[in-house]
């Protein structure tokens, strides 16, 4: 089992622990705001399961029906997470509405707040781990899960502070107001998550900084060639796809041209990790004099 699978399984375990703590906090207080926090944790557990399934699917090797692999499966996971976040937000808004209609004072608020704060600390540590490791392992599913958890942490901080104020002041209406604020916050988070996932599904190019670095590598490592042009890129999960045309002198042998391509592939993969690189070799009469000049 690789690191990505281990982290995905860990998210499920952490999700169940946090869900249990947050529901206990709601049970101790009767707070609608803390209930909203617990509802979001239910989504955390479900999305962690979806992320694990997507990660396992994306790790499958290429086959006849999917010759470029299954890497995009992780983006579908992130889209599902975004949809579930929106569903959770609507459920929380429903609870907040009934709370506005019949506000009530909280029961034993401090014990519940202490339990909820503990759940928030656990979530914060795990969210940081998922985002940092997800970026390192180039896993959109892990990064999406980590960002969702971090949004949950921010919501929890606001909820704990607000419920504390409500308990001290006796303003019962503040409790459903906080729940509504949590719902709006996670709605915004869900929209952002879906927007980023769609960019991957639409074959968006890699980051300009990375693309500039690839152009630099081609310029400095393609000794023996003349120029490169029509450089294209896209990303799909952990995999980056790059293709370009490489112009060489018309008298260059196939063997020498192949060696130049191998050198370029090694240099690019050393820079960006997992990549599928396609290089189309052309004679010098195909030069466009508008691409990447080889130094």
TrEMBL record:
A biological process from GO: intracellular zinc ion homeostasis
Keywords: Cell membrane, Membrane, Plasmid, Transmembrane, Transmembrane helix, Transport
Location of this chain's protein in the cell: Cell membrane
Residue ranges of domain Cation efflux protein cytoplasmic in the record: 209-283
Pfam families xrefs: Cation_efflux, ZT_dimer
SUPFAM superfamilies: Cation efflux protein cytoplasmic domain-like, Cation efflux protein transmembrane domain-like
Transmembrane feature ranges: 7-26, 32-55, 75-93, 113-131, 152-171
Protein's UniProt keywords contain Transmembrane: yes
Domain of life: Bacteria
Annotated InterPro entries: Cation_efflux, Cation_efflux_CTD, Cation_efflux_CTD_sf, Cation_efflux_TM, Cation_efflux_TMD_sf, CDF_Transporter
Domain Cation efflux protein transmembrane positions: 11-202
Membrane topology: Multi-pass membrane protein
GO molecular function list: cadmium ion transmembrane transporter activity; ferrous iron transmembrane transporter activity; zinc efflux antiporter activity
Membrane in keyword set: yes
Cellular component per GO, a single term: plasma membrane
Entry similarity comment: Belongs to the cation diffusion facilitator (CDF) transporter (TC 2.A.4) family.
Protein's name in the database: Protein p34
């Amino acid at each position: 089992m690789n690191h990505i699978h281990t982290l995905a399984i860990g998210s499920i375990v952490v999700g169940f622990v946090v869900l249990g703590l947050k529901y206990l906090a709601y049970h101790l207080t009767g707070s609608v705001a803390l209930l909203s926090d617990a509802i979001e944790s239910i989504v955390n557990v479900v999305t962690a399961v979806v992320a694990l399934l997507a990660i396992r699917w994306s790790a499958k090797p290429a086959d006849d029906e999917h010759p470029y692999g299954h890497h995009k499966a992780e983006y579908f996971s992130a889209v599902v997470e975004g949809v579930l976040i929106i569903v959770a937000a609507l459920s929380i808004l429903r609870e907040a509405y009934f709370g506005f209609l019949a506000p009530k004072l909280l029961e034993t608020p401090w014990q519940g707040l202490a339990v909820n704060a503990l759940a928030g600390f656990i979530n914060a540590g795990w969210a940081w781990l998922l985002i940092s490791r997800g970026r390192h392992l180039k896993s959109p599913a892990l990064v999406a899960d980590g960002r969702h958890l971090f949004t949950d942490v921010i919501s929890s901080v606001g909820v704990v502070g607000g419920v504390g104020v409500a308990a001290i002041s006796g303003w019962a209406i503040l409790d459903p107001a906080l729940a509504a604020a949590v719902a709006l916050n996670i709605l915004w988070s869900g929209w952002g998550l879906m927007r980023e996932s769609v960019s991957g599904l639409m074959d968006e190019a890699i980051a300009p900084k990375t693309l500039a670095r690839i152009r630099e590598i081609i310029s400095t490592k393609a000794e023996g060639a003349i120029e490169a042009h029509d450089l294209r890129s896209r990303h799909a999960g952990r995999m980056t796809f790059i293709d370009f045309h490489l112009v060489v002198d018309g008298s260059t042998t196939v063997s020498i041209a192949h060696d130049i391509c191998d050198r370029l592939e090694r240099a690019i993969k050393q820079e960006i990790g997992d990549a599928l690189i396609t290089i189309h070799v052309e004679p010098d009469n195909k030069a466009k004099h508008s691409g990447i000049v080889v130094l």
